[in-house]
Amino acid sequence: MTIKNWPQSERPREKLLHLGATALSDAELLAIFIQSGTAGLSAVDVARQALVQFGSLNALVSADQRRFCSAAGLGVARYGLLQAALELSRRHVFETALQGDVLRSPQQVRQYLSLHLSGLGHEVFAALFLDNRHRVIEYRELFRGTIDSAAVYPREVVKRCLSINAAAVIFAHNHPSGVAEPSDTDVRLTRKLVDALALVDVRVLDHLIIGQGVQTSLAEQGLM
């Protein structure tokens, strides 16, 4: 039976409009993007199969195009729709962060950085540059690849802070393994950046390690 033949209250789109998006399961939300099923399967069935195949919602939305499109009932068009939705979510969180005092909403900062950095197959070292009222000036990916003290150049970070008149910065990088425990290298690098930026009166407020559904703050752990 296709979704069109379901009772109206059970159809994902109608359910969302009546009860709100939070009332839908992962499969029902995905079914709205999938739009149509395959022979003998509804869009919800296709979504459920995809979730089982990938193991989790996060693994599915983080999959690269080749792997995503290899799943039955998915394809390039649906991959594009999902990526567009993820990017809209990232931009929404960023615009919200721009409107207020970032320090009054640390969870908002973590959410934004996680949207950008979690689920990647490679390490990315990024920064939120802040003004003297701790409002976000910009988010910028600074370096890619294996993060170590040789790969991240403090002088380049200092130059960027000076060029945009940043007064403070929050660093973040991801661990593709999914484990958010800071390494000795992470701690040494953070302290090196703190010392370099102190010379130009720029405060390092935190360095977040982004794992799989978890973030670790070096500031909270007293490692800065």
Question: What do these coordinates show?
Answer:
- There is one protein chain.
- The model has no long low-confidence stretch (mean pLDDT 84).
- The relative contact order is 0.09.
- Strands 2-1-3-4-5 form a five-stranded mixed sheet, sandwiched between helices.
- β4 (203-210) and β5 (215-217) form a beta hairpin.
- It contains nine helices and five strands.
- The protein has two domains: 3-87, no CATH class; 100-217, Cytidine Deaminase, domain 2 (3-Layer(aba) Sandwich).
- Helix content is 45%, strand content 15%.
- With 224 residues, the protein is α+β, with helices and mostly antiparallel strands.
Q: Provide the low-confidence segments as ranges.
A: none
Taking the sheet with the most strands, its summary is: 5 strands, mixed
Structural class by helix and strand composition: alpha+beta
Helix percentage range: 40-55%
Task: Tell me the number of strands.
Answer: 5
What is the domain tally?
2
The whole-angstrom Rg is: 21 Å
Number of helices: 9
Q: Give the second-level CATH assignment, the architecture of the largest domain.
A: 3-Layer(aba) Sandwich
From the spread of the alpha carbons, the general shape counts as: elongated
Arrangement of strands in the largest sheet: 2-1-3-4-5
CATH homology group of the largest domain: Cytidine Deaminase, domain 2
By CATH reckoning, the class of the largest domain would read Alpha Beta
The sequence of SSEs as H and E is: HHHHHHHEEHEHEE
Strand content: 15-25%
Q: Write down the overall mean pLDDT.
A: 84
Predict the CATH topology of the largest domain: Cytidine Deaminase, domain 2
The end-to-end distance, rounded to whole angstroms, is 58 Å
